[in-house]
Amino acid sequence: MAAHLVRRLLIAIPSRLGISLILFLILALAPGDPFGELATNPNVPPEVRMALRAKFGLDDPILVRYLRWLVALAQGDWGFSFASRIDVSTLILQRVPTTLLVIGSSQVLALGIAVPVGIYAAMRPYSLIDQVANTLAFVGFSLPTFFTGLLFILLFSIKLDWLPFVYNADVQASGWRWWWEHVRQAIMPVCVLGFFQAASYTRYVRSAVLDVARLDYVTTARAKGLSDRTVTLRHVARNALIPVVTLVALQMPAVFGGAIVTEQIFRVPGIGSLLINAMLANDTPVVMAVTFVFACLVVLFNLIADLLYGWLDPRISFG
Amino acid sequence: MNEQGIRDLIDDVKDGRLSRRGFVGRMVALGLSAPFAGTMLAASGVAAQSYDRATYAPTKAGGGGTLKLLWWQAPTLLNPHFATGTKDQEGSRIFYEPLAAWDNDGNLVPILASELPSVENGLLARDGLSVVWKLKPGVTWHDGKPFTADDVVFTAQYAADPATAAVTLGSYKDLKVEKVDDLTVKITFDKPTPFWADAFVATVGMILPKHLFADYIGGKSRDAPANLAPVGTGPYRFVEFRPGDMIRGDRNPRYHLPNRPFFDAIEMKGGGDAVSAARAVLQTGEYDCAWNLQVEDEVLKRLEASGKGRVDLAYGGNTEFLLLNAADPNVEVDGERASLKTKHFAFSDPAVRDAMKLLVDRASVQQFIYGRTGRATANFLNGPERFVSKATSFAFDPAKAEALLEAAGWKKGSDGVRAKDGKRLNFVYQTSINAPRQKTQAIVKQAAQKAGIDIEIKSIPATVFFSSDVANPDTYPKFYADMEMYTWNMTQPDPAVYMLQWAGWEVAQKENKWQGRNIARWQNGDYDKLYRASQVELDPVKRAAMYVAMNELVVKDNVVPLLHRAQVNGFATKLKAPQSGWDNTLWLLADWYKDA
Question: Is pTM, for the whole model, over 0.90?
Answer without folding.
Answer: no
